[in-house]
Amino acid sequence: MYVFAALVLLGASQASTSTPAAAAPPPSAAAVCTTPEHRQFDFWVGRWDVYGPKGKLQGHSLIEKLYGGCGIRENWMPAGNPGGGSLNIYVPEEKHWEQFWIDSQGSRAIFVGGWNGKAMVIQGKWGGPLVRITYSKNSDGSVRQFGEQSTDEGKSWAPSFDLTYRPSKA
């Protein structure tokens, strides 16, 4: 305890007598998130009406590009329930995308993945099973979000949801 206090005091006295190093200015957002990889998920950005596989309206979603182009925020508003959302970011050092999901039911999930040349594919644990989500842009401008789950750590997959995002009429 006394050694710790002495080290803290020594550090404080040195900090007050030393000349601070010039801090480099933070990089501008325009210079940070302008690579083609940062644009890979832009097709999902928009105000959407979201439909299930039988064409029934499931809810609405507002997907926004934020934070100087470094993040994409999802605001999911399902019919009859408070919803949830995600924050998405491209991580250049790891060459992948990450999605952090939370919802009004208290669940959370972290998904990791990336662009496979045709679609954004992410996966992670959501509750118990491993979940894989594929986002693909359709020729009519809509976006398909197809979910699958695996109970055997990815050896086999079963469909769990299939949603189509269409530009909102509102």
What do you see in this structure?
This protein is mainly β. The protein has helices at residues 2-17, 29-32, and strands spanning 46-51, 57-66, 71-78, 84-91, 96-103, 108-115, 120-125, 130-137, 143-150, 158-167. It has one domain (35-167): Beta Barrel (Lipocalin). The protein is built from two helices and ten strands, in the order ααββββββββββ. The chain has a ten-stranded antiparallel β-barrel. The termini are far apart.
What is the overall shape? globular
Query: In the CATH classification, which architecture applies?
Result: Beta Barrel
Helix/strand-derived category reads: mainly beta
Classify the beta-strand content into a percent band.
over 45%
Give the name of the CATH superfamily: Calycin beta-barrel core domain
Helical proportion, percent range: 10-25%
- Counting DSSP H or I runs of 4 or more residues, the number of helices is 2
Mean pLDDT: 87
